[in-house]
Amino acid sequence: MRILVLNGSPKGKNSITLQTIEYLKILYPAHEWETLHVGQKIRALEKDFAPAAEALARAELVLFSYPVYTFIAPAQLHRFIELMKEHAVDMRGKWASQISTSKHFYDVTAHRYVMENAQDMGMKFVRGLSADMDDLTCERGQKEAVSFFNHLMWCIERGLCEPDLPVQPEPAHVAVTPVGDSDSLSQRAGSLPAPSGREPLGGEKTGDVVILTDCRPEDTQLAAMIARFRAVCPKKTRVINIREYPFRGGCLGCFQCASTGKCIHKDEFDTFLREQIQTAEAEVQAFTISDHGLSAAFKRYSDRQFCNGHRTVRMGTPIGYIVSGNYRHEENLRMILEGRAEVGGNFLCGVATDEVDTDAAIDALAAKMAWAMDNHHTQPKNFLGVGGMKIFRDLIWLMQGLMREDHRFFKAHGQYDFPQKSRGRMLAMYLVGSMMRSKTLQKKASGKMTEGMLMPYTKVLEKARKEAESR
Ligand SMILES: Cc1cc2nc3c(=O)[nH]c(=O)nc-3n(C[C@H](O)[C@H](O)[C@H](O)COP(=O)(O)O)c2cc1C
Question: By alpha-carbon position, which residue is closest to atom 28 of ligand 1?
Fold first, then answer.
């Protein structure tokens, strides 16, 4: 087959993921292999897409090869996918699959993103290979790579691919009712007129909610949604349009920042992030859904936050989203937004969309955010957060020599919660286990086990009762 590898790693030939491709090339030389370093060459491809369009036209099978970057793919690959769509390259009927390397932190959402976009372009998609970054160095990983490729070829021979995406309705874009003088809203952060029929907001606004957006002049619906949020939000708001930031480029995956916290790009973004964005008491991200996710511009912003490493520096900060588009139909994007909040330890105040009642959704988000700020509301992490943090914990522990800032942070915030440390509990369980094996004790304890397990909780309730009585 004519196989085109789209290498989305900004590291080009030095990509770890690409080594699996090189391995397969050695083992399967009968295929015609071609590689485009789209991650590294994205600037040149933006100027001249013709070489990519020709390579895509030649290909029978497209293999997306990329590292997982912050829940999805590197911004550079996002941009390449945007370009493929903008140039309307005819990919219909071509085969596609993917190989990624990562630490398996949200590799599922990255794979789903790439598959959904390939399917948008009419490609026949076969399930990909999500390898750990070290996998190729061990026999199991090598076998799995070979097995992946054999499965891919077998599927292609038989015409077997993943089911097509469900057809989505046109986005509703339910109109927003302007509140106050919307022209001046983007300039004003102080007290604003109350929305009609609502309680006056009264007084000068306080607080600091930063609204990050990639809103372009043509995104009038998104602009109107932001304007309404600012008008109804009881807190002071300010807008940062990340398209206007003079980024020198996307994250290069160089790991320079791992030990110093300083990015190699000389555009001072890390300082801007720390002084202008991370200082806010709450954060809203506002975007229009594109390519089943966020724009490449927004993704570049997310990737560049790698200068914070794996440090959950914003934990406790309420966050929310203003989203224009078919959010209810974007299951993968929903998992990404929830997962980001869960891992970061942020209360997700809501995702206000323009699918049904835009005004009500925005007003609810604004009210909830203000309440969460006033009450310092936090919630325990769910599976998306607990699972994600366990991956981080183990990774940082192993790589503490390199990721020194992360290591310090994890130590300082009690994030090294290894179960091996809970020796007392382990010993207690041994004791209970050995007691339960004794026939006599089993008889005595019959029916008392569940009661016994409640002992620590009974103490809490007793204490609460006493405190309530003494009030
Ligand atoms: C900016 C950045 C973001 C990353 N995000 C993730 C992630 O969300 N999940 C994960 O498991 N690994 C993540 N990683 C680790 C990379 O996926 C991993 O190092 C990969 O093997 C690099 O592949 P490459 O050499 O082909 O670029 C990230 C690395 C960088 C530099």
Answer: 69
Ligand 1, atom 4, lies closest to the CA of 69
Nearest CA to ligand 1 atom 31: 253
Strand bridging mode 95-102 / 348-353: unpaired
| 344 compared with 200, residue with greater pLDDT | 344
Query: Is any ligand 1 atom within 6 A of the Cβ of residue 106?
Result: yes
Ligand 1: does its nearest atom lie under 6 Å from the Cβ of 9? yes
The reply to whether 2-158 and 186-383 are identical in fold is yes
Of 335, 337, 325, 318, which is closest to residue 361 (Cα–Cα)?
325
Measure the CA–CA gap between 194 and 299, rounded to whole angstroms. Answer: 35
Q: What is the pLDDT of residues 89-103, one digit of tens each?
A: 999 999 999 999 999
Q: Is 170 helix (H, G, I), strand (E, B) or coil?
A: coil
346 lines ligand 1 (CB under 6 A): no
In the DSSP assignment, the letter for residue 242 is: T
Among residues 82, 156, 98, 152, the alpha carbon closest in space to that of 130 is found at 98
Ligand 1 atom closest to 7 (CA): 26
DSSP letter (8 states) at residue 166: P
Name the residue with tokens 């106050």.
180
- The pair of structure tokens assigned to 56 is 């895509």
Give 74 Cα–ligand 1 centroid separation in angstroms. Answer: 9
Ligand 1 atom closest to the CA of 16, numbered from 1: 25
- What CATH number should be reported for the domain whose range is 186-383? 3.40.50.360
Q: How far apart are the first and last CA of the chain?
A: 78
- Is-above-0.85 flag for pTM? yes
Return the number of other C-beta atoms located less than 10 Å from residue 446's C-beta: 8
Give, using CA atoms, the residue closest to atom 17 of ligand 1.
102
C-alpha torsion 459→455→382→405, nearest 10: 70
Nearest C-alpha to atom 16 of ligand 1 is from which residue? 102
Q: Report phi then psi at 206, rounded to 5.
A: -125, 180
Helix (H, G, I), strand (E, B) or coil at 239: strand
Cα torsion angle, 153, 157, 158, 163, sign:
positive
pLDDT digits (tens, 9 = 90+) for 425-469: 999 999 888 888 888 888 887 778 888 889 999 999 999 999 999
Distance CA 93, CA 32 (A): 19
Nearest CA to ligand 1 atom 19: 102
Binding site membership of 80 for ligand 1 (Cβ less than 6 Å): no
Give the mean pLDDT of the chain: 93
Is ligand 1 within 6 A of the CB of residue 69?
yes
- CATH homologous superfamily for 2-158? Flavodoxin domain (3.40.50.360)
Beta strand pairing call for 282-288 and 32-36: unpaired
By DSSP bridging, strand 129-132 and strand 235-241 are unpaired
* Domain boundaries along the sequence of the chain: 2-158, 186-383, 426-470
